[in-house]
Amino acid sequence: MARIDVVMPQMGESIAEGTMSRWLKKVGDAVKRDEPIFEISTDKVDAEIPSPSSGVLAEVLVTEGQTVPVQTIVARIETEAGASIAAAPTASAPAAASSAIGGAPPKTESTPSAPAPSHQTPALAPAAMQSGARPAGGNGGSMEDRLRTKSSPLVRKIAAEHGIEIAGLQGSGIAGRVTKRDIMQVIESGVPAAAPRTAPSMHAPAGVEHHGPAPEPWAGDVVESMSRIRALTADHMTLSRRTNAHVTSFFEVDLTRVARIRAKLRGDFEKQSGEKLTYLPFILTAVTSALKQFPILNAAVSGSNIIYRKQYNLGIAVALDWGLIVPVIKRADELSLVGLTRQLNDLATRARAKKLRPEEVQDATFTITNPGVFGSLMGTPIIPVPTTAILGLGAIEKRPKVITGPDGEDTIAIRTCAFFSLSFDHRVIDGSVADLFLATVKRTLESYPESGA
CA nearest 9: which of 45, 58, 33, 56? Predict the structure, then answer.
């Protein structure tokens, strides 16, 4: 009889902790090797975690909603099916797992009368993150010091851009690790990170956002914590609106020619590749071609520097029942219509099944979102940090259009059209450049070669 420890996996080099989203098995259930037994959420991806061994789930040490460091023991599996099953853990079990490595005790669920911030990254008042709030006797070499300063690359980048020293902050993560929400609260407070404070500001009392008091639930309301993916999306969107100078431009694109080529190629394409041919691969081809002509739209801003990316990695927003995720097609300019279609379908399918790897949702240089599939005509999407632009695709539909013939006569014809919107960072992209980029995408699609190549 033996017991196997099940640990919180590290889903990427910069990932230091994970949140237990959902247990797929309960204590006493038989499990097979490589069978998914729980779901986790990290800063990068949601994923199902397989069992390391066959047996019976004997203990569950980390409860749903709890965030713990990687390599924390979350459960134990009895490798003999007939072995006795341990009793369900008490509330102290998760605390022991966390405190054993210098972590914080588990969070408790909020009641309707006192809603709390999301359990993943609890909000702190700016005063709680003052300079010098470090463990007594810390010399930078303890595990607590290492955990605190090992923030994510995004957090370190934000801190560097605002002149904030992470090592001088006490965050809400494990062992005081500074999270993205923590660093944004320091910035929003308007208080220099190096200025020690002994009491909360009257303008930003503890637990209250700088823009006003939190709303209170009314009788009959339902209060629930944000899912991790929703909280992360909120953080990313807020950060982008605060960082990028958003401007959106709109073009109407005539896709009649692409529709005709697609109809012509569709039968043989699907028979040979086994994949459905949509409009999106044609659009991706046009976008990558235009990005090469206007490299600033494939760039990133780092302080006062502009990084011109030489890879063309297209992020494709995928709507899920529980949120939004953006898998990335790497080196899209090197792929054919067949290659793009296969990548699109594969990434979207695995995103919905929570099978994506962390590296498959990283390193996008340009993003495309397609709200048109839900009937939206146009929108103003928010630019994902740290890129400089995002393309929104409106609904593709037939419309009456005025067409000028070779003889100069105007006629009304039925055309297949869609509105494309480009949100861009006006700090580094001029309106004329953004419009020239969209005009190039439009021209490419409206004169697409009949061969489909």
Answer: 45
Segment 65-79 mean pLDDT: 88
Q: Which long-range contacts (CB under 8 A, 24 or more apart) does 100-107 make?
A: 101/69, 101/72, 101/143, 101/174, 101/175, 102/143, 102/144, 102/147, 102/174, 102/175, 103/68, 103/69, 103/72, 103/174, 103/175, 104/174, 104/175, 106/63, 106/66, 107/65, 107/66, 107/67
DSSP-assigned beta bridge partners for residue 18: 68
266-277 pLDDT, tens digit per residue, is: 999 989 888 899
Catalytic residues: 426, 430
- Structural domains of the chain ordered from first start: 3-99 (2.40.50.100), 126-210+225-232 (no CATH), 246-446 (3.30.559.10)
Give Cβ neighbours of residue 209 (< 8 Å, ≥ 6 apart). 123, 188
3-state secondary structure 229-278: HHHHHHHHHHHHHHHCCEEEEEEEEECHHHHHHHHHHHHHHHHHHCCCCC
pTM of the model: 0.62
Asked if 81 contacts 126 with a C-beta cutoff of 8 angstroms, the reply is: no
